[in-house]
Every structure is written in C-alpha cells, then in structure tokens.
C-alpha cells in the first residue's frame, strides 16, 4: 500500500477471485465456468471486418446486443442494460441504489460485501436458515437495497419465484436485486415480474450458461427507470464498457438458442449424475440448481480435501467462512471431468483415517 491511498480504502478487503492457473494442467472445477466451447455461430462472426472495426470505439448504447437480449426475454430494449461482466452491473447497482444500505444473506456471493465497502454502503447480513434456504419473511420492508442471488452462490439453492415476488412486494420502497447468474441451470427467471414491480432488478451473465466468461458480458433486466439509473452510473464511469468483439459474441450467443439449450441440458444431466456419484462416495451435498455442487465428507475437512485434490491436479473452491468451511464447491465440468474428480476423491477418502 502506498502512502497515497485514500484512507477509507485502508481497511477494504478486496474480492479474492478463484485461481486461474496459467498452464492448463489442472482439471479446473473452481470458478463455475462452462466446460463447453462457445457457440460456433457466435465465434464465426469474429471476422477480419470485425477485427478491423476495433479501430473504432464500441457502441456505447450496445443497441444490437440489447436488442437481442430484449427479444429473447420478451421485454423492450429500454428494459435492458449491459455491462463488462455482471460484476460491473452489480457495481453500478450498488452505487445507484444502496444509499440507505444493503442487505444480503450470510452465505452468498462474496463480492456483495466488497461492493458495499467500496461504495460506503452499510451492509446488513441476514443469516440463511439452518438448511441454507432464504427466509423471504426476514427481508420485509427493509428500506434498503435487497440483494439475493438466485440460485444462491455457494449453496446452489433456488428460491421459488413466489418468494422472489414476496421480496419485491414487501420492499416497494427499495430496490430488490435478484442476481440470476446461475438461473439457467435449474430455476425460473423473475424477468416476467419486472412489468409488475418497478423495484425489481434482475442481473444475469453470459459467463456461465453461454460459455463466455472471458468475454466479460453481463446484463440487467428491469423497469425502464431503473435501467436509466444504471446507465447514469455507467455514463459517469465507462461509456464504452462492452468491447466490440464481446458485443458480437454475446449477441450471437443469445440468438443461438439451440446451442444454449444443448449445453445447459448437458450440464444439468452431468450435475444430476455427479450428485448421485457423490452420494455413493459418502458425501453429503447441498441440493443444487446451479452449475456447481457444495459437498462435504465426514472423513475429511473442506480445506484438507481442497489441498489434496489440488496436489492431484484438480482445482475446486474452498471457502473459509464458518458455515461452509467443511464443504468444497465443485463446478460441473464434462462427464469425464466429474469421473476424474470422483475417482480422485475416492482415493483420498479411502486413504484417510476416519
Ligand atoms: N454473481 C454471482 C452469483 C456469481 O457467482 C458471479 C461469478 N463469480 C457473478 C455474479 C459475476 O459473474 P460475471 O462478472 O462473470 O458476469
């Protein structure tokens, strides 16, 4: 830290991203990426002309991409904002709507508390129930930004749409942000409610179900006025926030519905058979509607399992927070990836004295 750093950042604990090893030597099941090649149709559009156009700034309105997203979800273009990954959209939302503070569950996406700290918003942490489900009644009339990941990050548990509606209904005075990064793997989006609730902000990403984590594109769906508020922040920060190539890729990926249906179906099928295998190996897992599973084994702690898997070439994620430190989070890869995981985990467990 230099002597020049702003004082209020001295105590900020930045987000720690999952490891991104450079050598490709690992079976990488740690950051919930998609194991499948992106839409071939999308990739075919990265032509010489598209590269030549890199001389020019990208379209700050991202009209073509927003149009494709709007058409896909049956909403107007003015109901859509796009960002450099959904992390950027989340940042805009915290800056725009957390003036009176923000609340979110104790076990959830770790970036929420970092954004709260960065933007000076007081964070209220609302514990999940014992079984890691969200109790929507605990979020009534908060008068501050309410943030729920659905399915929830780290647990994979999906909160039914009726409960999401309860959150929107019981917080008419503030914004309810539903982070649907994982919704395509087993939940129904709350987008159909945005016409009914002008305080509901849906955030999604191209990083998971559309295999474009490295392209960095996320988007928001909401009432026009909320979108205008997000744009106000965007135009005060980085108007050209989505680069030309990513905009082309994301638009086409949104249009390539058969690719999307095929790859998400494969991942869901793999998740279900992986869950069954984990059970056979004696793991207990949180039922997941996402592209990852949180699993623990009574013979070995989460940190030790993480380390042993890593030395055997498998990267998963371990979180030190008390409620989930017995678990490892395993992203759903190809069936072959999961077979290797199970074989290796079995070796580790068999070699561990219970
Ligand atoms: N929300 C949740 C719940 C996530 O797990 C992630 C991925 N780490 C993000 C948002 C951010 O995704 P991206 O910026 O790649 O769109």
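^ structure tokens above, recovered residues below v
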């Amino acid at each position: 830290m230099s002597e020049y750093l702003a004082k209020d950042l001295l105590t900020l604990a930045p987000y720690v991203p999952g490891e991104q090893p450079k050598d490709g030597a690992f079976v990488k099941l740690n950051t919930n990426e998609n194991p499948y090649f992106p839409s071939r149709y999308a990739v075919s559009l990265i032509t010489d002309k598209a590269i030549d156009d890199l001389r020019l700034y990208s379209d700050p309105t991202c009209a073509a991409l927003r149009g494709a997203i709007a058409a896909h979800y049956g909403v107007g273009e003015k109901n859509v904002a796009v960002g450099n990954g959904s992390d950027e959209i989340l940042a805009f939302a915290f800056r725009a709507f957390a003036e009176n503070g923000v609340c979110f569950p104790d076990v959830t996406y770790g970036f929420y508390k970092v954004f709260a700290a960065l933007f000076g918003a007081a964070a209220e942490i609302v514990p999940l129930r014992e079984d890691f489900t969200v109790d929507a009644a605990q979020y009534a009339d908060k008068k501050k930004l309410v943030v729920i990941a659905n399915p929830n990050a780290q647990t994979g548990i999906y909160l039914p749409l009726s409960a999401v509606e309860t959150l929107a209904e019981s917080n008419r005075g503030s914004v309810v942000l539903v982070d649907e990064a994982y919704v395509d793997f087993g939940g129904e989006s709350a987008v159909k409610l945005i016409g009914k609730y002008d305080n509901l902000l849906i955030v999604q990403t191209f990083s998971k179900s559309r295999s474009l984590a490295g392209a960095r594109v996320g988007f928001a769906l909401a009432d026009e006025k909320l979108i205008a508020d997000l744009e106000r922040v965007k135009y005060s920060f980085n108007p050209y926030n989505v680069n030309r190539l990513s905009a082309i890729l994301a638009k086409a990926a949104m249009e390539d519905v058969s690719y999307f249906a095929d790859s998400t179906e494969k991942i869901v099928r793999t998740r279900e058979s992986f869950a069954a295998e984990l059970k056979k190996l004696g793991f207990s897992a949180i039922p997941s509607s996402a592209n990852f599973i949180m699993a623990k084994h009574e013979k070995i702690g989460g940190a030790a399992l993480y380390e042993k898997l890593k030395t055997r070439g498998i990267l998963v994620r371990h979180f030190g927070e008390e409620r989930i430190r017995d678990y490892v989070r395993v992203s759903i890869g190809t069936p072959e990836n999961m077979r290797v995981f199970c074989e290796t985990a079995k070796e580790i467990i068999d070699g561990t004295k219970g």
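The longest helix spans residues 257-280.
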